[in-house]
## 1
Amino acid sequence: MRLKRIPYRLIGVTTAVLLAAGCKEKPPAMMQHTPEVGVVTIEPAAVPVTAELTGRTSAFLDAQVRARVDGIVLRREFTEGSLVKAGQRLYKIDPAPFIAQLNNAKASFAKAQANLVSTTAQAERYKVLVASNAVSKQDYDNAVAALGQAEADVASAKAAIDTAQINLGYTDVTSPVTGQAGISQVTPGAYVQAAQATLMVSVQQLDPMYVDLTQSSLDGLKLRRQIQEGRLSTNGPNAAKVTLILEDGRVYPEQGKLQFSDVTVDQSTGSVTVRAVFMNRDRVLLPGMFVRARIEEGVNPKALVVPVQGVTHDQKGTALAMVVDKDGKVAMRPLVTSGMHGQNWVVDGGLESGDRVIVEGIDKIRPGMAVKAVPAHLPATPAAASGGASA
């Protein structure tokens, strides 16, 4: 059997055709290995700047009702825990000793008035007689002095009547404010003393209610610096909105207002007190409750925000984001974040306006890989209740 030789020229042409066919099939295979990722383009946005602080509630008015005279408590005229009005009588102290003091003062006043009539008449007679040298100048001077002393005795007796009337009035122990009465500290039959200022009951006004918060002096310093640099804008502390979070995690339905920030730093804690006021019509807030408050301190008009899907953290807790650079390749950026705004991280460093951050397909890429960037389709999510980033 004789083998026919194949011309070398035919072999070369066939190889070229096969290679050409293989080259035409490679581009589709290569395109399949270029992953497609969803990106969002970072643009500046106005973001409220909030500070979350802890603190406790305190009554708007806290009146401690104390004894102002000594005596025996005859009766209590209110129900513990009830609402009492300003001027309402709460206790009755035995008035008998003070009635006797008042009567004694009135008698002394009558005696002083009678003495004043006598000394006035004598001074008038001596005035006429001294002119005709019927009495000595010394006798006349003594009569004038006696008149002055009698007048002083009348004034003193009148003041004693006023004092006795005041003390008698203190036997009616009344509420100085309208508010909620607490637990009675004395019972009928108890002996109370003015010298020891015996506490009888506390009356607290619970609507509105104060919330005293603590803020570190460093955070306050940062806030003032950001306002001075123009990074934050604010309408003043009295216009700042405050949202309250109760102990069970629920958001208090009423919005509060910032009253003031203390001007003195506590040297032991390095913090200042920030006071807010809230309406408390339903008596949900009680004095001494532990609460958290979010204070809207201003607005950052040029904040950069990144969806939470586009931010990861390494083992050290550093925030990271994958971006598509100008060459279409993946680059990793460490971020400096300052808090959350809704479903977005607020970024203070690591990104610039116009950067394309990868938020979809992160699990199939790595730094340096070429990718195809397409706009991401993120679900619309409502803003969080906080509505701001921490300062």
## 2
Amino acid sequence: MDFLLGLFSRVTANEEVARLLFLGAIGLSTVLAVVALILLMMGLQDPVQRRLALIKRGHLGNTAGQEAPGNLQLLLERVGQRFGSAESAQKSVTQTLLMHAGYRSSSAVQMYWAVRLMLPLLLIGIALLALPMIPKVSLIMGLLLVFLVAGIGWLVPALYVAKRKQLRQGRLRAAFPDALDLMVVCVESGLALPTTIERVAEEMSVGQVDLAEELALVNAQIRAGISSTEALKQLAVRTGLDDIQGLVSLLAQSIRFGTSVAETLRIYADEFRDRRTQAAEEMGAKIGTKLVFPLIFCLWPSFFLVAIGPAMIGVLRAFG
């Protein structure tokens, strides 16, 4: 309190005006916070509004096997719906990003925008409480710190989702060769493509959970009446991997022209192994360039210190 009052006094150069501004800011912020909480909680506690929100999410009351979301989750979804991006293109990009990261819920976009909006406000409040503990901080430095904290709160969810997407795609890319080999074995043994996908999903459910879930979802879509080609295209869209997109294109052509699916899978498996070998060779060729910076900043200073250090000491002693 005294710290913030001192900041206002420095700006206005008048203690009475600073006190009035300080009290007005506290009163206005308190009223706005209370009104916002009341409006949000009234919308959640209203039985009609809550029922509509649950029906929109797909939770139909006491349906077995479904767990209704809590008030906090509904609150975040409502905030995301109020303040989220209204542009369909931006929403589509965000939905694709969350889908690649593994968030396929219907409310994932709303939750994402709610967290991106509320986390900076929470960090700003923490920063304002922590400012009085920092000695000799000016008004400009305090404002810069608050803006820095708000920027960090805005960027952290996006960085987290991007990192999660990268890790998940890495796991899918690493598990894809094993799945491809299993598919080749199953198809050559006489199994149909849907049965092959189901068997591969069962075999990989222990070690590679992400790919097993995606393949199980493909199998469920095929059983629901979606064609194999369309289900595989949706798999490529959900994962965002070029390798799976290439496999889908080859399988679509094989199904369309009536060629052997087993031969198509075997050819693609060989091509995929060649691409993986080329990627490993490319990474190995980059090692020499990447070692330049550690050599310059870590090894060469020590080398010059050992090689030239004694001579420099002798010169300093001679001309001392």
## 3
Amino acid sequence: MSTLCEKTIETVKASVPFLSENALKLTCHFYQRMFKENPEVKVFFNPAHQVSGSQQAALAGAVCSFAENIETPEKLAAAVELIGNKHASLGVKAEHYPVVGKHLLGAIDDLLDPAPPEILEAWGEAYGFLADVLIGREKELYKEMAWEGFKEFEVAQIVEESEVIRSFYLKAADGAEAPASKPGQYVTLRLPDGNGSTTMRNYSLSSHGCSELLRISVKRESPQHADQPQGYASNYLHDSVKAGDRLELGAPCGEFYLDVEAHEKSGIPVLLLSGGVGVTPMLAMLQASAGRTFPVTFVQGAMNAAQHAFSEEVAKLADANANVIKHVRYSAPAEGDMPDSEGLFDEAFLSEFITTETEVYFCGPKPMMAHVLGALESMGHPQEKVHYEFFGPAEELKKCPMH
């Protein structure tokens, strides 16, 4: 892998103050340019994140982070792993990178009107460096995946898990066994978008270890505000997909997973914490770790019993395995509900389940995740022992009002 020359590093770092003030303006213009001139790449982006502005904000944060850490690229390893897995799940290839690079440099040039040649040259070299790193990692991931691209699966069964969550059991249309996966990983669904094209979404596998079927569990997403559309993909799955239908799936992927064998050797305790539909990757982790020698605490949050999915499944696993403890917490219990506790996942509550050794894995709605992340930081829990999955631009968590 090539290295960056000192002049390039100095020039990029000198641009950090300008980027900090103008990064969002830059990325908004970048996406407008790219989608206008190369509309074929729009399929890789979630339209909802574009409408909300979160994708533009996330890229702005990533550009600034890269510029700030250009001398120490090893600090970007986690980001490279996250982006590499996301790109591999969507089918991003080496030939797509020049398109992005062209429009990123074009946006910089337009914003500076025009940019000095040394700025464009430095950022061109820096982008090429980062692209090479990502392309290299993605090539490795493609080799590890059960298949490249998309494969047909048949919907074998659909199960109502709660008022808003529905599970889809999927079997390979060619009769092959279900692909191996790591507990916590996701698959990508490619769905018709209603406009003659397709759209892609990632869904965590909510079960682990079955050689015949994959299971995804999808919450029907309703608009949070009157001017927002409902979630297209989730509502399509709930309203239009029936048993016997076929869906296109990408192979299991993702850097967020529980390394069961490592915990079996170390004996380090695990806390699996979830809110709402964020329970899905935690279920796969729970199934993979039930019956092992290391202790597992499964804490599930929901608004109330009507929205509490998989209660019987989790209870059976806890009852049957001595290494599993479960706890149910409702934030807005209805009359007659009987959770183990009520309230949010605040510091006082989390401290009951965490020691300095505990590896914490969590997933859920953005406000809940921001709240948990902030609580763990306030508690001084070691950062390397905090793991989470967030289907959206991760920078949103740090800007959420509850964090």
## 4
Amino acid sequence: MIGNCKYQLIQLGDNVDFFNKLKIELQNKFDELKLNIDFIRFITEDNIHEYSGGEPAYVVYFGGDFIPDSDTLDIIMHQINDGNIILPISAKKLLADIPEILKKYNILEWDNNLNKIVNLILEGFELLRKSRKVFISYKRSESSNVAIQLYELLEQNNFDVFLDTHSVDKGEDFQEELWHRMTDCDVILMLNTDGFLKSEWCNKELEKAHIKRIGIVHLIWPGCDFEDFAYLAESIQLKTNDFEKPFYSSDLNNRLKEDILPKIVNMIEGTRARNLASRQDSIITDFTQAASNNSISVQLQYQRYISQELSSGKTIVYIPTVGIPQSINCHSSEKLLNKIGKKEVKSIRLIYDDLSIRDYWLDHLDWLNDYLEIKTIKKINFNRWFVTKQYDK
């Protein structure tokens, strides 16, 4: 079930004390973020069979006195091939405890700072974003009250929620703003009432979500044909006793009972975990494929950026950005320079999928490229970037 989807932390190395302390620090940080630690599956070599390639994963390799055997190296290679972020931690001078296969990655020298490592892991899982965005799609004439109820519930659970009646300013191009906001969200919560799929706009929102690979959670009203959604894993079939009053499809004042609400929140969080990893992976795949098509070598690093080493010895950093690039992305990217520890960074570029972003915002980003140190590259221009060797100009 998607509601049980996990963030996977793969622990390689034999420092049991380190990994026990790391788990405690993660628990503390999850408590601060008001997240459930059960969303993380802790995986070692002993239970590596529990690893799922369809769920977000982060690999921590701790060196020290551990000597990796062929099984460990096979696991590492599998994780590299799956495109997962790998954080190699060296406990010795000269990185002698890091296997050759990981020496091309940025290596973190162990300095007893667990908080730094926890933050890297949370950033890798996109859990440190200030906003965790949900878009509620519904038919006003059938589920307005439940939509407002869920809006309030999700805001209480630290989500940034888009609801058309609460989130679109007067005078905005309503439908264009909906598509724009949708592309920037992590999950779409669809309230599938009797007339939902009969609505032209609800169907278009469903279509747009699939094109953008945005995760969807479907709440299916009693009496609606579940078979219409059987191909969707992220769905909850509501029963009449899930509502506060005896269910009538035309009763707009009805609300959901309290005991069904945690299940909805958990499913949204689980879907969000998978979705962010999938969308970021899609950007990374498209960008690295464009590089490969032009015989350019790039490398995915543990801080969630792609590096390209130039013949001059300088490095270009590419940061895959889910949703709409904002000024906060640029600010975070500048801070990343300190984490990278490389003085010879030629430039930083945010790479993003431009589909369904409003023209005025795309024009704004293009304009900013003439003025800001941190610049952007649209998905539509990935190939041209390498063909015309823009990186070397």
